[in-house]
Design brief:
With 507 residues, the protein is α+β, with helices and mostly antiparallel strands. Among the domains are: 177 residues, Beta-Lactamase, CATH 3.30.450.20; 130 residues, Heat Shock Protein 90, CATH 3.30.565. Helix content is 64%, strand content 15%. It is built from 10 helices and 10 strands. The strands form 2 sheets. Strands 2-1-5-4-3 form a 5-stranded antiparallel sheet, sandwiched between helices. The radius of gyration is 56 Å and the shape is elongated.
């Protein structure tokens, strides 16, 4: 119960949130102070470097003036004496660390850091950088383990560039001060972390006690609602009568809603039983529909098989006999040619007629199998007239096609509408016993209207009101029409023939 209680979950979440907020604030405070101290240290270091840079340039300017005056009077000894005095002072003050006087050929004339390099060409990286400078500049570089700041000023002799004066200052003292400052920052940071942790722990303890007290007030109503819900789940709907609602906050609203929900649940339970009975009735209907689909599938397979048989008979009785007659006539022509006799023109005419007959029969079969082969070149009225003649010639049923108005339509509409027309004619032949069929094609307000009527035996349409009770032919025509977003209606009565009306939008 402790693990899943909402009270303890509430306490854990709130305490964790408090700890997270305090931790974030503490870390941000420490980082802010650390950044401020580092910023202050950097400013102090920059000030010290600027001060050292100014001292170096002032010293370099004064020494350059002395050197240029001595060079003008060729008094080199005074230059050496002056640099020696500076070197002696540097032993006590540490500034400058060295003085180097180089001519434009990198020849060192004075080198207080390494006197043995005097009268030698200096090739170090800092030396090459210094000799290329034609203006006053400051260069910071590292030599060995020591970092130097070097002021470089050009030396002119007789109004021309002679060389450079390099005065270097060691940054050891500055580095030592920076290290000491970082140690102080680390120490102060440790103290800040320690004090912040103590304050955070005290605040967390006080906050946890407050949360523990408040959690009972906030979660007890929810715990009571949970117990009541468990009783209702067992079937005791009267358990909600013992709920006492006093508060007007969200918990009070929840309690009122829960009571209303319990009453509705009792009503819903009764309705559910009624729905179960209705559902069972729908399931029975579904099972019956599935049985109808199976029967329809069997009809489809049977229809496919009958269609194959019909096409094979058409090919055998039509094209087969035509080719046999054509072969016989060609054999007679071949015999006459081999015997040297003149071929009779009637034989050639018979061959041409047989070929024409075969072509017509082949087109008729192609139209049965692939109507789109012809649909792309003919409009809907021409297609109906062409097929009606073939049907009338084959089945001896008069078909009259009247085209009131036609219009350009897509290949999809052509294909499906022709299949509906074809299926209607074959249905009349199979079932209606009619000897006359009236077909009418019209267009009105972008609506293609096809009417097919016969004078056959008709039937009682009330017996076929459900779509799953319809025959395969009618179902096929209806589905193809609905595929084109059209409407399919059929009117019929015994001994009064049948009329099919199809309306299809063309846009």
């Amino acid at each position: 119960m402790f693990t899943y209680s909402i009270r303890w979950k509430f306490i854990i979440v709130v305490v964790c949130l408090i700890i997270s907020v305090i931790t974030i604030i503490t870390v941000m405070n420490i980082n802010t102070q650390e950044i401020a101290i580092k910023k202050e240290l950097k400013m102090h270091i920059d000030v010290m470097k600027d001060s050292m840079r100014e001292r170096a340039m002032d010293f370099s300017h004064g020494l350059r003036s002395t050197i240029e005056e001595a060079m003008a009077t060729f008094d080199i000894s005074s230059i050496i004496a002056q640099t020696d005095r500076y070197v002696k002072k540097a032993k006590y003050s540490g500034e400058p660390a060295y003085i180097i006087l180089m001519d434009s050929n990198s020849m060192a004339h004075i080198h207080t850091l390494h006197p043995d390099l005097c009268q030698t060409k200096l090739r170090g990286k800092a030396d090459l950088f210094a000799i290329t400078q034609s203006k006053e500049t400051v260069n910071e570089y590292v030599r060995g383990d020591t970092e130097y700041m070097e002021s470089i000023v050009p030396i002119n002799f007789a109004s021309s560039h002679w060389g450079v004066l390099r005065v270097g200052y060691s940054l050891k003292r500055l580095d030592s001060m920076i290290k000491d400052s970082y140690k102080e920052i680390k120490h102060r940071k440790s103290e800040m972390v320690f004090h912040s942790i103590i304050v955070a722990i005290v605040f967390i303890i006080i906050s946890s006690i407050i949360v523990l007290i408040l959690s009972g007030t906030l979660t007890n109503p929810l715990i009571n609602l949970t117990k009541t819900a468990e009783e209702i789940a067992k079937g005791d709907f009267s358990a909600s009568d013992g709920i006492s609602v006093r508060s007007r906050d969200e918990v009070g609203i929840l309690a009122h809603t829960f009571i209303d929900m319990t009453h509705k649940l009792r009503t819903s339970h009764e309705q559910l039983e009624q729905y179960s009975k209705t559902l069972q009735f729908r399931i029975d209907e579904l099972v019956n529909a599935q049985l109808s689909i199976r029967k329809l599938s069997q009809k489809v397979l049977t229809a496919h098989e009958e269609e194959r048989k019909r096409l094979s008979m058409e090919i055998h009785d039509g094209i087969g006999q035509t080719l046999s007659a054509l072969k016989l006539n060609l054999m007679i022509i071949e015999r006459d040619i081999n015997d040297g006799r003149t071929v009779q023109p009637t034989l050639i005419s018979n061959v041409v007629k047989e070929i024409s007959t075969g072509i017509d029969e082949l087109r008729s079969i192609i139209l049965e199998l692939r109507p789109t082969y012809y649909l792309s070149n003919l409009d809907m009225g021409e297609i109906f007239i062409f097929y009606a003649k073939k049907f009338e010639h084959r089945f001896a049923i008069k078909v009259t096609v009247t085209v009131i108005k036609s219009m350009e339509i897509s290949a999809v509409i052509k294909d499906n509408l022709f299949r509906v027309f074809q299926e209607a004619l074959h249905n009349i032949y199979k079932h209606a016993g009619a000897n006359n069929i009236e077909v009418q094609l019209d267009c009105d307000n972008n609506m293609l209207i096809l009417s097919i009527s016969d004078n056959g035996v008709g039937f009682d349409t009330s017996k076929n009101q459900d779509s799953h009770k319809e025959g395969l032919g009618i179902l096929t025509m209806r589905e193809r029409t609905e595929l084109l977003d059209g409407t399919f209606t059929m009117e019929s009565s015994p001994d009064s023939g049948t009329t099919i009306l199809i309306k299809v939008p063309v846009q």
